[in-house]
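Hi C.,

You asked whether I'd gotten around to modeling the 313-residue construct. I have! Everything is below, sequence then structure, no commentary in between.
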Amino acid sequence: MPDSQADPLIVAISSRTLFDLEDSHALFEREGLDAYAAFQRSHEDDLLQPGIAFPLVRKLLGLNDGSPPEAPRVEVILISRNSADTGLRIFNSIAHHGLAIKRAAFSNGAPPFPYIRPFGADLFLSTHGEDVRNALAAGVAAATLLPGALLSPRAPHHRPDQLRIAFDGDAVIFGDESERVSREGGLAAFSEHERSHAGEPLSGGPFRGFLDALHRLQAAFPTGEDAPIRTALVTARSVPAHERVIRTLREWGIRLDEALFLGGRSKGPFLEAFGADIFFDDSEHNIESARGLVTAGHVPHGVANPVGTPRVG
């Protein structure tokens, strides 16, 4: 069983990723804060419908089954631009759905990202691109989730009893130095660079810390196909650029259950086949390929995401 003394995996999420608040957000943008606040107060007993991250959160909290309440394996923390007053509807909905979310920060319109690090979050998920960029700049793994239709839990390859997380490699798990070589010199330069540096570990990317924390949690459970957590690397790399990736993960002492080296093939169908509950990638093109099939988080980091570029959408 997992070590009850180990630090929990901590995931911070925004209210718009947990619940469907798009109508309320549209009202805010159309009529302003006062109209939004009045609407939330008058509807605080109306339950909110699940948002794009709701199934992921339920699976994360499900990993606490069998652990003592005072020592959870996973904590989910709500980080919201609502006020505590307008957030009452959110907490009513959390209670209705039976989600064990005990900690929250309501910033009343101010950027909430400064509270992410004090909570010790390993990951931050939000619909607000600026908050995500600021979290990444502060050293916290973060991704932008776009509101959209929930994927069916009965979809092919979906495992209701298993959390499946997929990662891109360069500029997500790893640094973006190899991707910079590719953009500046093309595929031939990239292949030669990776071949000549095959024995040199890649630097860590923005999700290195989250991967470490997830690996510690994963390693505490029994291994095998029925383990409660399964991970995958889904990368555009192909042979021979695979070797440096494998040696880097070996150097880090990290186990990924599956690795897909796609050689530039579209990632969406492979992610659907894996049954990913969430996929993280720095490329807007790859996010568009994936988001209709799995929940996809855009990581606005590295050479593919210069400051000032618009978010996916």
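If it helps when you're writing up: Residues 177-196 form the longest helix (20 residues).

Thanks,
B.
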